[in-house]
Every structure is written in C-alpha cells, then in structure tokens.
C-alpha cells in the first residue's frame, strides 16, 4: 500500500452518501438468489460484472432495482448491511448515514418491518463488533408519485425514532424536487432531517429547488451547481454540505475522468464537499477507494484530505459531542502520521 493510501485508510472518516442496496456484491446476489429461489437473468458473477457498464444514471438504476429483487428476508437485509460494514471497517470509516429505498421492497410485497428490522440488526452488530455507528435515511423514489411517498412516510411511522432523515433518489431528470415539497414538509414537521439528490444529472434549478422549496440540510452530489455562480455563493454562504461521489460520477459519466472531477474546485470555491461511494458494488470502489483514487487523480494536499475528513463529520447528523470526538481523533491522527513527511 502506498503511503498516501495508508494515510487515507487510517484517517477517521464518515460516509454520508451510501445506498445500502448499492452495496450488494454479485457474489451475495447469487447467494441470496439461491437461498430464496429467485431466478437471476445472469449465469455467473462474471456475467453480472460485465453488465456493469453504464452510459448514464438510468442504465445503472435498471440493473440496481433488478439486483435488489433477491432481498427477501430480514436476514438478507442484515447480511447485506454487515457485508458493507465489514468492508468499510477496513477503510477507517467510523460512522455511516445510509440510504435505503423502502419502495423498492414494499412494491415487491416485502414488509416495511422486514427491511427495517434486518437493517437495524446489522447496524447494531456493526456498532458492537466493529465500532462503526450508523443511522438510516429513508429515500423516496422520485420516479414514483407524491401519494406513494406519503404512504411510505406513513409506513415508517412506528420507526421514526430510528430514522434520522428522509432523502430523494432515483431518476432525477423530469422529477424535480418541487414534486415532493409537501411530503418533505411533512417529514420536517416530524422532526426528520432532509436531504435530496440534486445536480447529479439534473440542472442547477433542481439544486435551487432542493434549497428553497424542500429546505434540505444537505445536497447529495450537487456537481451541476458549479454551472451557476449565484448558486455556488448561496451554498457557500449557507455552509451546505455536498455529498460528492467520485467513482459514481465516473461510472455514470457525470465526469469524463477523475482528473476532471470538480472536487478540488469545490473545495477551492469554499464549498463543503465530502467524499462518498454511492453504490460501491456497482461503481468499482468502497469509501477508501473513492478517497484514494480522488486524492491521487486530483493530487489533493494533506490539508485538503483533513478538510474532507472534518467535513464528513461536521456535515453529519451526529450530535455535537460525537462530532467533537471525531474531530479530535482526526487532529490526533494528523499530528501523528503524515504521508508526506
Ligand atoms: N442517483 C440517484 N438515485 C440513486 C443513485 C444515484 O446515484 N444510487 C442509487 N439510487
Ligand atoms: Zn446516490
């Protein structure tokens, strides 16, 4: 391992943009398909991996929803979560705010409680055995309608003390944040935090809507905000965290190469960017790999890496005492080890 990779792996960090269904590796997909008697349209793990060549977000989403069809039992959701946590434990990940898409499962006849109980069991085990804390963000699928989102929020009612916030994901273009203004207001009234995918493929106007109409606490992705200087100014002024996903952006052709990725520009502009994996099983790398490849391609400095690590905690929904503890751990680590000394 290079000095830079070793430094990054040891640096305490949080992941704020991770779709747990997007951590389903082909091997586990096959195991669950066998366990549950679900037919897959692929003959082998290699065939699945070969299908992961995407031209855009929708290409990916089609295969991602198909893969999620093997998740049936509470144990499946537990195993999915634990496989992810075991993997990021080796990346120096200390805290995760994970997205889940209940509609992808309830629309197939899986009970909301099956999804929740399985994920919560995995999260408790990860905290106990790996020392990784986590919380859940319920995402509404934006290609479905407002009534379906309201029904999902209602189904979540018994679990609201175990869900930190709501988000908005799936096909962005044609499904602006405005479509979910009322359901986000209802979620806010229940004390939930709010985030939304905006500016991944959608225009800067969608980021404005996420801010002005949904009143989100964070923007997921936000790349296209850079097209609008007034929007950048607003995001900087508000100190709004962007959950940026370098390898996802590469695989979904949001950027032509990692060297062209706007992460460094975002930091230079004063935007509060973070590094995340999005759907690591599909995009070729978990949290650590996103950090290492971005740092390498963009030649990020030690100070930039530390800023990114700090942003991952100050942009989290952790209580202030926990944020302070993680920031102190970053400071102690940075004093004790440098990849450049
Ligand atoms: N964008 C939108 N929806 C998603 C994504 C993404 O990157 N990953 C999983 N659902
Ligand atoms: Zn995402």
How would you describe the overall organization of this protein?
The chain has helices at residues 3-10, 26-36, 45-50, 57-67, 74-89, 102-106, 112-130, 146-155, 181-189, 204-212, 229-238, 246-251, 263-268, 280-283, 287-298, 302-314, 320-336, and strands spanning 13-19, 93-100, 133-141, 165-169, 193-198, 218-221, 241-244, 272-275. The chain has 341 residues and is of the alpha/beta class. The chain has a single domain, classed as TIM Barrel (Alpha-Beta Barrel). The chain has an eight-stranded parallel sheet with strand order 1-2-3-4-5-6-7-8. Helix 10 links the parallel strand 5 and strand 6 (218-221). Helix 16 packs antiparallel against helix 17 (320-336). It is globular. The model has no long low-confidence stretch (mean pLDDT 97). Bound molecules: hypoxanthine and zinc ion. Hypoxanthine binds next to helix 4.
């Amino acid at each position: 391992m290079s000095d830079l990779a070793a430094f990054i792996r040891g640096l305490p960090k949080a992941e704020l943009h991770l779709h747990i269904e997007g951590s389903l590796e082909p091997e586990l997909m096959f195991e669950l398909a066998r366990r549950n008697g679900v037919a897959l349209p692929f003959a082998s793990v290699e065939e699945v991996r070969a299908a992961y060549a995407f031209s855009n977000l929708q290409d990916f989403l089609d295969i991602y929803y198909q893969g999620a069809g093997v998740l049936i039992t509470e144990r499946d959701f537990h195993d999915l979560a634990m496989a992810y946590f075991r993997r990021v434990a080796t990346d120096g990940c200390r805290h995760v705010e994970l997205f889940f898409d209940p509609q992808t499962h309830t629309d197939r006849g899986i009970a909301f409680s099956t999804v929740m109980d399985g994920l919560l069991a995995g999260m408790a085990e990860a905290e106990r055995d790996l020392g990784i804390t986590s919380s859940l963000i319920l995402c509404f699928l934006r290609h479905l309608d407002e009534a379906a989102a309201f029904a999902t929020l209602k189904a979540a009612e018994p679990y609201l003390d175990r869900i930190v916030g709501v988000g908005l994901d799936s096909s962005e273009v044609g499904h602006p944040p405005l479509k979910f203004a009322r359901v986000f207001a209802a979620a806010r009234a229940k004390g939930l935090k709010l985030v939304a995918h905006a500016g991944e493929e959608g225009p800067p106007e969608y980021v404005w809507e996420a801010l002005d109409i949904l009143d989100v606490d964070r923007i997921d992705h936000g790349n296209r905000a850079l097209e609008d200087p007034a929007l950048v100014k607003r995001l900087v002024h508000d100190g709004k965290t962007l959950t940026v996903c370098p390898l996802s952006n590469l695989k979904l052709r949001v950027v032509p190469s990692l060297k062209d990725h706007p992460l460094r520009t975002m930091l230079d502009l004063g935007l509060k960017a973070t590094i995340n994996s999005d759907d690591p099983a599909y995009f070729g790398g978990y949290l650590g790999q996103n950090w290492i490849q971005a740092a390498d391609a963009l030649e990020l400095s030690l100070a930039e890496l530390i800023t990114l690590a700090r942003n991952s905690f100050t942009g989290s929904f952790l209580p202030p005492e926990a944020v302070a503890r993680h920031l102190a751990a970053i400071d102690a680590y940075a004093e004790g080890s440098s990849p450049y000394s």
